[in-house]
Design a protein that fits this description.
Layout (H helix, E strand, L loop, with lengths): L12 E5 L2 H4 L12 H6 L21 H11 L3 E5 L2 H4 L9 H16 L3 E7 L5 H4 L8 H17 L5 E6 L1 H9 L11 H24 L5 E7 L3 E3 L4 H24 L4 H7 L10 H5 L5 E5 L4 E3 L24 H13 L6 E5 L16 H19 L4 E7 L18 E4 L4 E4 L1 H10 L4
Parallel strand pairs: 1-2, 1-10, 2-3, 3-4, 4-5, 5-7, 6-8, 7-9, 9-10
Antiparallel strand pairs: 11-12
Helix pairs in contact: 7-9, 8-9, 13-14, 14-15
The structure holds beta-D-fucopyranose (FCB).
Beta-D-fucopyranose binds next to loops.
Length: about 450
């Protein structure tokens, strides 16, 4: 027996999620400034299919149609992100009215359809003009971010259900500044840890400023978290898994909840540890109204050859990520145990990429339906054991620009034909609609 919507509280948030750079397109229109992802896409070899976000899903021009799609699913919330360079092209100073208008139409269009808006301020598309002054590596960017947050609050804050500062700061810091595989493509570990500190600092300062400004939305941050399992019981694997847990999970949650970075991580970093000013951690510790968690799979950590789920014969998605729903239950219960003062949690992203094909106007993505069912069940299992989860958001509404993979990975419950930009709801969209109607 699978779980149904009726097994969840009536005010539980059911949503679909997207992000600005991945769907909007209109990269150079109506006064938008370039973002670091616009620039990164120009680097040869940076994006697997050599694509970019110039058109993407053309959501900017198809807003009304996409809002109808969202409403037809029967969700009560929608998670989207705001492109900072669209609303403030240089990341400071002048605002772009046409950009602000777009988000105002988005928010009002959602409300008119009975869907609550959940906005994210930073889903990675930093204004390129700020990158030219070292971007997140520069402490000053944190102050610019606070001004940006206040600008958004003044324009649309009164109509938002939720407002997230950053999406997945670990990714921005590590993939963007240490491994160099995401924008801005830096390869400097010391810089990466400084970036992670500045992201957290800007988050805490923005929360304080937003509350002073009278924000009514629930305020929070979104982290990418997974249980870290050692590949074997060897002391080396166990030690490595513990350290990586510190770098991914405890670095962020200890800072937010206890106002300190984990000692073992600081020690391992040695002189790569970030510079921290005396009041920084107090700002970072500003209480959240919610914690957003993006969950896709567990991590299995090996001190030798990297562990590979597919080679182990396990079920994987088109990203090669293991399908491991029980990891979500495990994670939620672990957070409840280790951070008992945690605010309620939203699963702000969960979903899977598969190689979908349209046949006779249909996409039979049975694997995605199963993936979503299993993960919703996993959330329910955790709630039965005491986890305070207030919502679940599917990644993603549409197939879209999957960062360094370009358009080669399809995460949508709605298929996008990139030649015609036609949207076709997949079986998973029809299933989600039935589930939300209490019929599946
Ligand atoms: C997350 C990102 C999101 C999407 C999914 C697959 O890390 O937040 O934009 O790319 O992964």
């Amino acid at each position: 027996m699978t779980v149904s919507r009726h097994d969840f509280p009536p005010d539980f948030l059911w949503a679909v999620a997207t992000s600005s750079f991945q769907i909007e397109g209109a990269a150079q229109l109506d006064g938008k400034g370039p973002s670091i992802w616009d620039r990164f896409c120009e680097q040869p070899g940076a994006i697997a299919d050599a694509s970019n976000g110039v058109v993407a899903c053309d959501h900017y021009h198809r807003l009304e149609q996409d809002l109808d799609l969202i409403a037809e699913l029967g969700v009560n919330a929608y998670r989207f992100s705001i492109s900072w360079p669209r609303v403030q092209p240089s990341g400071q100073g002048a605002w772009n009215d046409k950009g602000l208008d777009f988000y105002e139409r988005l928010v009002d269009g959602l409300l008119a359809r009975g869907v609550m808006p959940h906005a994210t301020l930073n889903h990675w598309d930093l204004p390129q003009a700020l990158q030219e002054e070292d971007g997140w590596a520069n402490r000053d960017t944190a102050y610019r971010f606070v001004d940006y947050a206040l600008g958004i609050q003044r324009r649309i804050g009164d109509r938002l259900k939720g407002l997230t500062t950053h999406n997945e700061p670990w990714i921005v810091a590590m993939l963007g500044h240490h491994h160099g595989v995401f924008a801005p493509g830096q390869k400097n570990e010391t810089l990466a840890w400084q970036v992670s500190h500045h992201l957290l600092l800007s988050h805490g300062m923005a929360l304080r400023a937003l509350r002073r400004e009278g924000a009514t939305a629930e305020l929070g941050i979104v982290l990418n978290l997974s249980p870290m399992h050692p590949a074997t019981e060897s002391p080396a694997d166990i030690a490595k898994a513990r350290l990586e847990d510190g770098q991914l999970l405890r670095w962020y949650l200890d800072a937010i909840h206890h106002g300190r970075y984990p000692e073992d991580v600081l020690q391992a970093l040695g002189d790569k540890a970030p510079l921290i000013e005396s009041e920084d951690l107090a700002a970072i510790q500003t209480p959240l109204d919610f914690l957003g968690i993006n969950y896709y799979s567990r991590s299995v950590v090996s001190s030798g050859e990297p562990w590979d789920a597919k080679a182990q014969g396990l079920a994987v998605t088109d990203m090669g990520w293991e399908v491991y729903p029980q990891g979500l239950t495990e994670l939620l219960l672990r957070l409840q145990r280790d951070y008992p003062t945690l605010p309620p949690v939203y699963i702000t992203e969960n979903g899977a990429a598969f190689r979908d094909e349209v046949t006779h106007g249909r996409v039979h993505d049975a694997e995605r339906v199963r993936y979503l069912q299993q993960h919703i069940q996993a959330v329910h299992d955790a709630m039965q054991q005491g986890a305070r989860v207030h919502g679940y958001m599917v990644w993603s509404l549409l197939d879209n620009f999957e960062w360094a993979f370009g358009y080669s990975k399809r995460f949508g419950i709605v298929h996008v034909d990139y030649a015609t930009l036609k949207r076709t709801p997949k079986d998973s969209a029809l299933w989600y609609r039935d589930f939300l109607a209490g019929k599946a």
